[in-house]
Amino acid sequence: MGKLLKSVFWIAGEKSGDLHAAQVLKSLKKLEVKPHHYGIGGPEMEKEGFESLFPFERFNVMGFTEVIKHIRFFLKTEKIIRKKLSENRPDLVILVDYPGFNMRIARIADDLSIPVLWFIAPQFWAWKHNRIYKLKAYTRHVACILPFEPELLQINRVNCSFVGHPIAEEIELTTTREDFAARFGLNPEKKWIGFLPGSRKQEVKRMLPEFLKTTKQMRGSGYEFLISKTSNLPTKLYFGMINDADVKEIFMITGSSYEMMNHCDFLVVTSGTATLETAYIGTPFCIVYKTGTLSYLIGKNLIKISSVGLPNIIMDRKIVPELIQHDCNARTIRGTIEKYMDHKLLYQQMADQLTIIKKLLGSKSASTEMTNIVENLLKDRMWLHDESFTRTL
Q1: What is the C-alpha radius of gyration for the chain, rounded to an integer number of angstroms?
Q2: Looking at domain 170-361, what is its CATH homologous superfamily?
Q3: Domain ranges of the chain
Q4: Is the pLDDT of residue 50 over 70?
Q5: What is the pLDDT of residue 34?
Q6: Tens-digit pLDDT profile for residues 343-358
Q7: CATH number of 7-164+364-390
């Protein structure tokens, strides 16, 4: 008998990656062979039996300058991972998004002849096109979650497939507007404007003050204003900025972001995964983003696409307005909100376009497709572990 399969090493360094990977881990429990899953992951993965070897919060940084500040940590972690993979080689490495760090680990795993499955392709179509060649060299398969990516990768002979977007399985809407209003003290007869400042501390510190200025300018408009709070950041961070801004009648929504997206009449969403979640749910919104001056200037020179919002990229046209960097201020945010809330035709046109995105993203089950890919890769690995088979090579 050959060696039994026993381990899969994962790296999911961001909150969204943790959530997406957890869905896959849950589905993988259906397999007859149940390997040990360990590596870098967050609380959602741990709920599914994942063993986290590193503090998840240390990996949740973004932007060029922010990454540079933490470079020692990343280099030290890379060295530790290299040692662990060398001393006790897993049967498969699964890398979830997080390309800056994961591409380096992919090369290490490939050098050690460990098969690599990449889940959520790097945004090679936006910048760093040479990552396509690295994906081809280092990975056994790339599982894409955006429908246009496989064609671009296959042109370069990268083994890949579209697996569907994880949000189609993660988003469940069960609460009525009335129940949501009762839970958070809202008036269901009023219109609600929702703000999503992001899931990282530096994002919230940059975006929330502009959002609060916007609500201050719109005081007396008859709207109720909702702020989505991510569970991984302290409440005092938000209330500190709310108190400094001297705004009133702000409703903090914790643990119900999808329901908030669903029941608000219009949303202001920080660029990232939340823009696709909002598009999938179907509430009209605008995309906003602001980063450090140096990071913005570097990114502006490197990014090769005209839109930054994923819904616009998928549709290959701007169906959702984008307010980026200098355009991301209280005056322009307020103007955009009023533009759509005051014009029913524009509002409905955006809503109609968002239904198309929902159909595209939900055409497949990402966890089911990933489970099939993992199972096949592990079967291939089983042949390599079988002594009678290896003697014939």
Answers
A1: 22
A2: Glycogen Phosphorylase B; (3.40.50.2000)
A3: 7-164+364-390, 170-361
A4: yes
A5: 86
A6: 999 999 999 999 999 9
A7: 3.40.50.2000
